[in-house]
Automatic annotation (TrEMBL), chains A, B:
Keyword Amino-acid biosynthesis among UniProt keywords: no
Lineage: Bacteria, Pseudomonadati, Myxococcota, Myxococcia, Myxococcales
Name the record gives this protein: Dipeptidyl-peptidase
Function, in words: Catalyzes the removal of dipeptides from the N-terminus of oligopeptides.
Keywords linked to the UniProt accession: Aminopeptidase, Hydrolase, Protease, Serine protease, Signal
InterPro entries: Pep_S46, Peptidase_S1_PA, Peptidase_S1_PA_chymotrypsin
EC number: 3.4.14.-
Region forming the signal peptide: 1-18
GO MF: dipeptidyl-peptidase activity; serine-type aminopeptidase activity
Biological process according to GO: peptide catabolic process; proteolysis
Family: Belongs to the peptidase S46 family.
PANTHER family (UniProt xref): PERIPLASMIC PEPTIDASE SUBFAMILY S1B
């Protein structure tokens, strides 16, 4: 990994130069884009782009690409669904999927798509409500007021989701109103071998040759939903220098964190997480050798772990880079100096950094209990999570909305219910492995004499307890439906509907355990939320406000898995002194193949090699500022037409969590031409093609002119 | 983990206070011991203790405990042998081993024991030889001169091993002459369940209840060797406050490293190692589930990995501790100030720290190549290591001694040959797993486009290549001897004897690969040794000399797996404000048991519970300064009698790599009384008992008076 941080700016310390920024749609720097690229997005352009963008509630981005609800995202974003629809005899991960007719479009067991319909600034309302408060009263009031706003916004409509989004670490609050699509069906997915060609070794690398695409469709009342806002497909290939926009949902950046928070990430949180993930990776890799079925059911988990490992290692390296970290320290010191130099600012904000540092110090002490007693790091089982949610739902849902644990807010209830009643299969063998592992880690981290460990394990070993719990639970009774395994969720439904009485009467071992441990988790959480998290949030808000006062408000907030728009251009970069060209070609895919996983092309590609135009653009990189969560984002040109499908960042971009370096940070996308060429010549996916580019199945595909 | 660093001293910065120090036998601070404990070891006492101490060449300590070559060490130090002697039908790890007659004592396939006969200071000779040199000429000359001294010392006698030991980072060089015992036989080992009671969860913890002991015997000419120097068994139990000595071979400390070196350890080396080891741990844990035989053959590997993981995490936490690291920084700054203040010292030593820092910076750049191209992190296979050693031996052994790669020095040839021709079994299934993993990591770390990766993998996947290499190699042809698997090493012997011609003609795929990669490894190593390692060594020597000039020579050197003596006393400590008592009792063993691994006692113990005196001392802690490598060390009283058997340090002691804190750092040992009580009442090991305490099988065992 080449690390070459010449950070143009650190959020808040100076106006953003270069192509930096994951901008909110209500604060997009159109004028700045015009200055650099000669094009100024209008309000109409922005509204259309916003409404054509989509979010997968599970943690990815997507876009509407036809008026009939066709949605484009990454294969790796839809793989949960593809895997769930597969069975031992019909492996859509390995063989791909294509619905030749509408009737063949198959519903994903647990997928929800959101469309951002409206943004309202509610900062003033919330600031007024919490004025003068701190600690528990502050966080209680903030939570209650947020719930109230969200509930008023959705007004009991299950098709609407409203979230108060905390921006600028609490410097601003916006209410985001989404339309929810919960009937999502799989339309077309290529084989995993080409969707994730190069596998983990090539992940976050460039040059690259992936067709990481999947098409879904949102349905309403059993029919394809009408989506008047969608992105058209570009007739012109994107080439070096072209202006590009990416509209998507970057999950999280930490550019506004204080040094104390960054040090905690660098020295405690990230190393611990990496040790755990590395171990899971080794375990799952070996678990896969038990047999082909075990491989199939654990592929999704392994992908997630490997992807997370590589991403987190990149982030850790960024923070370990002395020069980079030094810049962060310098920026904080500069701001603190400005604050201290102004008596009024000093009074309002001066103590905020030290308060955060103190709270971080306390977090070190409660970290393990928080992770294992409340956050389920030890009880790492889907069944246990469901049991815990059912137990808490029975307790929380009867309460006043403002009094509930935040995840049980009325606004979350539809998503919560959908999750609890999802028939997505849960495989006992995988569950037992994951849970045994988690219980072992719990004992390792907390120690064999910790009261919680004794309470959970008793005299049982992690393996025996895990097997007993998983085998004894009826929360997912697997059954076969059209060759796919799904959960019969009748027991869950009974427990959800039956409330506290049903929970108390349940003999299900997962429910009984969740019930026995509930108070322990709540106590740890309460202490954390009231004495640590509330302090950090409150003071982070002060730091954000200090930045506004010192540097003005023309800034972008840290990413929060809410919709953002970034701008940039198709652009190569230097690595080891050599230029990396920004566009790869289809011919390179075949050159890079070895015939062995993960460099083995699927039969459909090998068979079609001669039919393809080898010069067709395959993947491309742009200088857009993105991060994890942006996977599946549409890459569009100034006419708001699809020119690519974002699926990755290069390895240099991983430090983007903490800062942006335009010289090397790159967005990696599937080129729109590769999608058309393969749909046409490899997959014969005429239905999809016709929707993307009406008439295109009758004319030859446009050959790409690769840049450089 | 409680971290409470109040380091009495940092090596070199001030005279050692408290019980700090792993002292060489030729610079032992007897006067200081007298001052604190009222007893001054005489030269005779020291000589006797030195000659009664033993080293397991594989990386542990031990002691002679009878005149007939009886050796005591830890079970975990001998587990390689115990495992190798086991087979599917006679599992000595699970069931223990006891040779009722001399004839039943069974030879360990790959074990060597060394006894330190003589120490000679050769500092002046080497300094003279390298005077005025630096870079390659410096390291070449140093290496050649060391070889010359070693060769002259052993004078071709295969029963003698001579090593020039680098002390004080090169501030001093001592020639250590060892007597070598290569016929080592297993006499008695308890079951793994009690030898490692509490397993990984209790590892490095205290209170503790382990019987981590194994008895071996050295043979000469087919008969038990006569060992006139040995430790007698104490008739008196060690109790709180008693003076204790530990004579053993601490493997490595890094108390004298510069800040640049420590930062490299903290930010690069240790995290990378931990990620790798965590992954191996997950993989092997899951590999064990393939079946009981797989579990048996991989237990040793898993133990090593888990032990290493916990130890390394402890070390990393020490360096991440800001206060602790700050003390190291302050000590270095103080020394540099002293150097800079004295024009003559400044001229000699002033640049050393920056030179080391520069070299560390270069190490970051070549680290991956060094690890994967030369050090075999990717080709992680015992067969490949043997192949590589055979290939290099054919190249190196014909050379002049001084011209060879250091590990092929004449002094090392006997050990090298013994290793190459060891019949210790190598299991293909485990080999394939380890090698596949290593190759995958190699591709991950170096990238799929690295020339070395392409050379190794070609178009094969890591799994296929590993399987082809392991299955195709004849370097270990497994055969059954008396129910145990051993390697037929005829092919290896032929290649070793046949030299270059035999190597070139070999069709063995491991040999062919090792041959093909040899030049790559040598090139990377040459660059590292000449441009980085030589610079660090040379300048570390200057730093050490600066310390001598600034603070005098009454210091102990960093540990280097050479014999050291430490002093201390039986002593509890505070944890979470509560006193941890220094001695546990046998009754506690039964209380701590759950019946589930790793807290399940073996049947022999469960059966004997009523026969045992529950008040017998089981384990104890002392304030001796030790570290990994000290496992198996005798713990002796002022009469040089055995009072314990060192097998661990407490978790607080892991930071001992970088500094010693007498308030909490503790050595953990099996109490001598527990060994006697269990040999007598559980194992009926009369032969061993009679050797340890002649007549003891006729009298009742001495009940322990536990301290506190």
């Amino acid at each position: 990994m080449k690390r070459l941080f010449l950070i143009a700016t650190l959020v808040g310390a100076a106006p953003a130069l270069a192509d930096e920024g994951m901008w909110t749609y209500n604060n997009f720097p159109s004028a700045k884009v015009k200055e650099k690229y000669g094009f100024e997005p209008s309000q109409e352009w922005l509204d259309k782009a916003r409404l054509s963008s989509a979010r997968l509630a599970g943690g990815c981005s997507a876009s509407f690409v036809s008026a009939n609800g066709l949605v484009m995202t990454n294969h790796h974003c839809a793989r949960g669904c593809i895997e769930q629809l597969s069975g031992a005899k019909k492996d859509y991960i390995a063989n791909g999927f294509y619905a030749k007719t509408e009737a063949e479009e198959t519903q994903c067991p647990a997928m929800e798509i959101n469309q951002l319909e409206q943004i309202t600034d509610v900062t003033e309302t919330l600031n007024k409500a919490t004025a003068g408060l701190s600690g528990k009263p502050y966080s209680d009031t903030l939570k209650a007021k947020m719930s109230e706003l969200e509930q008023a916004c959705s007004a009991g409509d299950a098709k609407v989701r409203c979230d108060v989004v905390t921006l600028y670490q609490g410097g601003k609050y916006n209410l985001y109103k989404y339309r929810r699509f919960q009937d999502v069906r799989l339309v077309m997915a290529p084989e995993h071998a080409i969707a994730f060609f190069g596998g983990d070794p090539d992940n976050f690398e460039f040059p690259r040759w992936d067709l990481d695409v999947t098409f879904l469709r949102v349905y309403q009342d059993g029919k394809p939903a009408k989506t008047e806002n969608f992105f058209k497909w570009s007739e012109k290939s994107a080439k070096e220098g072209d202006l590009t926009f990416v509209s998507g949902h970057p999950g999280r950046t930490s550019r506004g964190l204080t040094i104390a928070e960054l040090e905690y990430q660098r020295d405690v949180a990230m190393p611990k997480m990496l040790f755990m993930m590395s171990e899971v990776r080794g375990m799952v890799t070996e678990f896969q050798k038990r047999g082909p079925e075990q491989k199939r059911i654990s592929n999704n988990l392994l992908f997630g772990v490997e992807n997370g490992l590589k991403a987190t290692k990149g982030r850790l390296e960024a923070l370990q880079d002395k020069k980079f970290f030094g810049q962060k320290v310098a920026a904080e010191q500069e701001l603190r100096k400005k604050v201290d130099a102004n008596p009024e600012m000093k009074k309002k904000y001066g103590a905020a950094w030290d308060e955060i540092a103190k709270a971080q110090g306390q977090l070190v002490n409660v970290r393990k209990d928080l992770a294992f007693v409340e956050q389920g790091n030890g009880l790492s089982s889907s069944l246990y999570s469901i049991a815990k949610t059912l137990v808490r739902a029975s307790e929380e849902l009867p309460k006043e909305n403002g009094q509930r644990l935040r995840e049980f807010n009325q606004a979350n209830v539809p998503a919560l219910t959908a999750g609890l009643l999802s028939p997505a299969p849960i495989y006992p063998e995988l569950e037992i492995m994951r849970l045994s592992f988690g219980l072992t880690k719990m004992r390792e981290e907390l120690g064999s004499n910790h009261p919680f460990v004794k309470k959970v394990l008793g005299k049982e070993s992690p393996e025996k307890l895990a097997a007993r719990l998983v085998k004894g639970s009826k929360l997912c009774v697997l059954k076969d439906v059209k060759g796919s395994k799904v959960c019969d969720v009748a027991v869950r439904k009974g427990l959800l509907d039956g409330g506290k009485a049903a929970i108390a009467a349940s003999k299900d071992p997962m429910i009984q355990l969740a019930l026995a441990l509930d108070a322990d988790g709540r106590a740890v959480r309460k202490n954390y939320e009231e004495n640590i998290d509330a302090v950090i949030k409150k003071n982070a808000e002060l730091v954000a406000k200090a930045k506004f006062e010192a540097y003005g408000t023309n800034q972008y907030p840290d990413a929060t898995f809410s919709l953002r728009l970034s701008y940039g251009s198709v652009k190569g970069y230097l690595e080891d002194g050599k230029k990396v060209e920004p566009v790869t070609q289809m011919a390179g895919t075949f050159e890079h193949a070895t015939g062995e996983e993960p460099f083995a092309l699927p039969p459909s590609w090998l068979k079609s090699e001669k039919l393809l135009d080898g010069a067709t653009a395959m993947n491309l990189v742009t200088s857009n500022d993105i991060i994890g969560g942006n996977s599946g984002s549409p890459m569009i040109n100034k006419d708001a037409e699809i020119v690519g499908l974002v699926f990755d960042g290069n390895i240099q971009s991983l430090g983007g969590e903490y800062g942006f370096d335009e010289s090397v940070n790159r967005t990696v996308a599937v080129h729109s031409d590769a999608i058309i060429e393969s749909l046409k010549k490899i997959y014969g996916a005429t239905r999809v093609l016709e929707e993307l580019r009406p008439g295109s199945t009758k004319i030859p595909s446009v050959p790409t002119k690769p840049a450089g």
